[in-house]
Amino acid sequence: MSEISSASPEELLAGLDEDQRTVAQELHGPVCVLAGAGTGKTRAITHRIAYGVATGTYSPDRVLALTFTNRAAGEMRTRLRQLGAGPVQAQTFHAAALRQLGHFWPRFVGGETPKIFESKSRPLAEVATGLGLKLDTATLRDLASEVEWRKTSNLSLSSYEKRAYGRAMPGNLAISDVLAVMNGYEDLKDSRGQIDMEDVLLLTAGLLESEAAAAMEVRERYRFFVVDEYQDVSPLQHQLLDLWLGDHRDLCVVGDASQTIYSFTGATSEYLLNFGSTYPDAHVVKLETNYRSTSPIVSAANALMRERPGALTLTAATPQGSEPTLTEYPSDAAEARGVAAKIAVEIAAGALPEDIAVLYRINVQAVAVEQALADLGISSTVYGAKRFYDLPEVKQAILALRGASVSVTGEPLFKSVSDVLRSVGWTQEAPQTTGASLAKWEALNALMVMADEAPEGTTFRAFTDELLARQAARHEPTMHAVTLASVHSAKGLEWDSVHLIGLSEGLFPISYAQSMEAVAEERRLLYVAITRARKQLSLSWAQQGTGRATNRERSRFVAELGMHNLGAKRK
At what angle do helices 235-245 and 93-108 cross, to 10 degrees? Predict the structure, then answer.
């Protein structure tokens, strides 16, 4: 793509509203932009950078714009290029740190920069085996996440040990075992001269702290900093940012405390909420005009977050629009079919499938919706996650079920399937843990539910034939597809029509959200889900869970949305 010629300062300001224009013209920090969902924050900060370059205030090679995903960094670079901002660096924290580490390591440490582990799971498995611990793949993934949380929270092993007693351990391991594996993992890395992605941040911070010449070089190179999604900053990233800044104060941060949904990775909105205390002379600008959603959708979002810490009050630029709907279904299966039927009506009326999304709290909820859409001839695509039938645990289970179905006959289907699934890790009760271990159980339990709900008289062989047929169908290419996405993966995206399923206790909020802080994060997650919708928002929940699940209650959040005044439709 060719670069677009530089716009004049006046042209850069012309398309901005009053508050966005204030952001763009406030070129020297400290500046804190509190930007609600759909308020054009990326537009404001990219125009700010381009305006700074166009007015000669910024030299483009001395600006560093930071964000948290490669997708967001790529979008920012594209917009800056189109605005004629020149070679401004827009990177993730990790990419910026890795570049600096590669630059400074040969000079201050010597030799080549250590190689980065492609995955933590394999070295963690090696250490665990050496300690006599036999861990499955899901537990290893959860253990890798716990290692990442410790490091991004900037905790030493001894500090982590004190915090660990208030945390659920991966795979219900003893804290002593988790600590032993973590210690062994660090020793293994040292012995091999390798590092992980969190070490990239830690080592870069260590170099800048210990080598004054390195810190001086970075601070001379970069004088103007912009940090997007500041509510997602972890303590380790914040330490590195402070080292990059030094005594400089030209920092612009942008964030929304109501969209803090990654606490499990170490992210905290504390730095955003306390920015005014850290910099008493900071210029604080609020972006509260929502250009994405209609007024009824914005009203529901406002109601949910009213009087919550750091919450903004959004005003919709589009005053008209249909009211969000809330539908109650008797079961998960009925909910999936009902949502699919609604989507079919939308498409028949002219809506494009790619402008429609179904959002959910946990990935396994996609299975029934995906099948219900397929039954109606509607293509779907799963965003940000593997499709259900492509999950390793599901593939393993189907192979095991197929093998057993050749020889097992005459038993009730439920017993045959449950015996096989137990052999690959399924239990009748969900594990008292979170993360990959729970996700694995949910995937296997979805297969168990299918067996439980199979038509009476279905043989074991017929059941596995159906599973294989469904698995094969998932590999068909999809064009113009409805998006299926977890709410976490949907952050930063938007659709004309959003169907949010599973608004029941145990799903929203999730069952393991027991503390006030955890429930507050679930509320913010719902806020993110609601604000993905441009024109239509359909919420739903099911009274009865799948299989042998007990009756559910409607989510406590529904009342907070004010939707109890609308009256729930029942199917």
Answer: 60
